[in-house]
Amino acid sequence: MNFIEKKAILVVSFGTSHENTRAVTIDAIESEIASAFPDFAIYRAWTSGMIIRKILKRDHVKIFTVSEAMEQMRADGITDVIIQPTHVINGIENDLMKEHALSFRDAFRSIRFGTPLLTSEADNRAVIAAVTETFSSLSPKDALVLMGHGTTHYSNAIYAALDYQFKEMGYPNIFVGTVEAYPDMDTLLRLVDQTHPEQIYLAPFMIVAGDHAVNDMAGEDEESWQSQFQSLGYPVTCILKGLGEYEAIRKIFLQHIEDALAEA
């Protein structure tokens, strides 16, 4: 095996048990990475142990944890690794991923990390451009509400910052909230209601349109975002399209790998 064949890119995702969204998000990202970097072997790892166990039990498909993927690459004779997360922010999942990967630092000549989706100011602008291009037909009289995950990690501040930046860039009818942190649903209900939109569109601000999108956003129960906005009298349309489906978002991850390679 020549040296170039010993280089690998490990693509790390949270994971999803929803096959339809996985195919057009995680799989699509990995496929584009493989096409863009043909000299690298491509490996997959997920950080959600719960989803990994569910897939194994339901589909009899084994998906590596980060540590298992690192062990497999070592066994395969990989010498240099680029690890590219598909995480949205530099939160808890990303910190743990780095910790697990770096426990193998002595097994490889080099381990380098690409950054999550929202890391730099340029990333923020690129993501805003991707969203506004995707929803370019949105009427100024309507509202687009993006559902992020949210975290107790300090990096959660990016969601409120991004909401502010959408408005600063001329999109007062685009809102960013989270399921598990701030801006929360109470905040969104108040802020969106102040604009009196004619129609509300809900879309996940997550790589996949998985459980949170299907249940917390578009679910039929009274606690879902759809139901809560409908309770205020607004017509609501849910768009189950994960960020991984946006071509421009996938290109940001490719750029982050390029940036990691440039640091060599």
From TrEMBL:
Xref: Pfam families: CbiK
InterPro entries: Anaerobic_Co-chelatase
Organism name: Faecalimonas umbilicata
Gene Ontology MF, one: metal ion binding
A GO biological-process term: anaerobic cobalamin biosynthetic process
Protein name per its UniProtKB record: Sirohydrochlorin cobaltochelatase
Active-site residues, Swiss-Prot/TrEMBL: 149
This protein's encoding gene: cbiK
CDD domains: CbiK_C
Residues at which Co(2+) binds: 149, 180, 212
Domain of life: Bacteria
Alphabetical UniProt keywords: Cobalt, Metal-binding
